[in-house]
Amino acid sequence: MYDTPDLVGTAGHDQSEPDILPPPPAALPVVVRPRPRPEAVTWGPPHHQALFSNASERPSSWLAAVPERPHALHDSWWMIAAAALAASSVIAGVLWISTHVDVDPTLHTVALFVHLASLVLGFGAVLVADYLVLVWLSGRCTLAEAIAGASRLHLPIWAGLAGLIASGSLLEPNLASGLTRTKVSLVLVLTINGLQALILSRRIAQHVSIPLTRRLMVWGASTALVSQICWWGAVWIGFWNAEH
């Protein structure tokens, strides 16, 4: 009988405890703060960064700082001089071979055929190139068309000249003859003239849209004249030596 109040009190205490506890605090609003953007990492001085600010723009000032170097034979007179020296060494080696090689009749016949075929290939291509220049001078084609046609003839011209030099070493040339030495000199001059003509061709190609200067006109006429003299002179001497 004494336990009832305690149980009742306990029960009453349990029932009134939820009302006595303070209400839970209201949820605070979540404030999202923007994250700071990382600073751009720069590599080098600030003016370098400005060059690459736009991906579509090329770093012209940076490229301009790189010196241009010639990569082709017609880009430098020094390379032309080195090529002329190498060609002279090759011709000297061919002459040495011609005096130390015994050629039988069969090999001589083959070398003669290659010599004549190389003459047709090289000299024929030179005549076509000069004809294209005459066509341009007569007003029947543009300078760009003449240059494009002549540029396609460089390979047969040089192939024909190389075939003439290589096969000539097997034709037992008489180096004691003045005509033969003259022919060798003409071939050497022809080779050097063809090398410097590469620079001439590039200079003329840069004046396609504007009239040619007097200097280029004289340069081109002199190159063509020297070429014709060397080719026709070598052909005549070769014919004379074959007949005598």
Automatic annotation (TrEMBL):
<keyword id="KW-1133">Transmembrane helix</keyword>
<feature type="transmembrane region" description="Helical">
    <location>
        <begin position="110"/>
        <end position="134"/>
    </location>
</feature>
<protein>
    <submittedName>
        <fullName>Uncharacterized protein</fullName>
    </submittedName>
</protein>
<feature type="transmembrane region" description="Helical">
    <location>
        <begin position="184"/>
        <end position="204"/>
    </location>
</feature>
<feature type="region of interest" description="Disordered">
    <location>
        <begin position="1"/>
        <end position="25"/>
    </location>
</feature>
<keyword id="KW-0472">Membrane</keyword>
<keyword id="KW-0812">Transmembrane</keyword>
<feature type="transmembrane region" description="Helical">
    <location>
        <begin position="77"/>
        <end position="98"/>
    </location>
</feature>
<feature type="transmembrane region" description="Helical">
    <location>
        <begin position="216"/>
        <end position="239"/>
    </location>
</feature>
<feature type="transmembrane region" description="Helical">
    <location>
        <begin position="155"/>
        <end position="172"/>
    </location>
</feature>
